[in-house]
């Protein structure tokens, strides 16, 4: 891209690229103005590059260089997903440094937020600003129940021929159902060069890794001194909302936003309010 080319700010049209590092191939997409510190997006359980809400990505990419990537063993990346999330954080570090970045900002959701925490604990100098949404701390209460909730909601979605995310991320009242359908529709805006769905093996490995994260000894999050924004809905069934409050207590100086009448995907239900908040926070 030359200096005269227009800046790509639409995630739906961002081309998929690859980089080779550590004996593996990472698939990623980038958009927004290049230069400066990039914002790296860490995605949720079972997600690929196609699972980011374009309304949030595009809002941040309007002013920042944004990078989204597939973890190893997921989507178009090679290899296998590791059995623990701290190893997934190591893979993320390999990817980030392979692109030549010495400092990043992080936007994370759900499992991505767990991996991001492990990344910051292991490499505190790498991250400048941190956004943790729909997530909780290592060893958090009831974190290990994610698998039970996930399989139950997948069954409910199958019986109603719905996308599981409509059950997992949103309340089942009229407002939540409408928000869920709108979210899934936004994910379908990209029509070309779509990512490969996660394999059953990788999905099960991720669930077990989350269980181990939930049953592990808590991390010392006092090492996170970076400005941190934490957000969730007030009725998160996957990663209980109280864990966002727990994170807020553990990370000194962090900001906490809880959206009413919203579930795990509260930031997607309230994207019109949240996207500018996240963009402003990351631009500071």
Automatic annotation (TrEMBL):
The AB hydrolase-1 domain sits at: 39-267
Pfam families from the entry?
A: Abhydrolase_1
Q: Which Gene3D superfamilies match?
A: alpha/beta hydrolase
- The answer on whether this UniProt entry bears the keyword Amino-acid biosynthesis reads no
Q: Name one GO molecular function term.
A: hydrolase activity
Protein keywords: Hydrolase
InterPro entries per record: AB_hydrolase (IPR050471), AB_hydrolase_1 (IPR000073), AB_hydrolase_fold (IPR029058)
Q: Mind telling me what this protein is named?
A: Alpha/beta hydrolase
Recorded source organism is: Curtobacterium citreum
**Lineage of source species:** Bacteria, Bacillati, Actinomycetota, Actinomycetes, Micrococcales
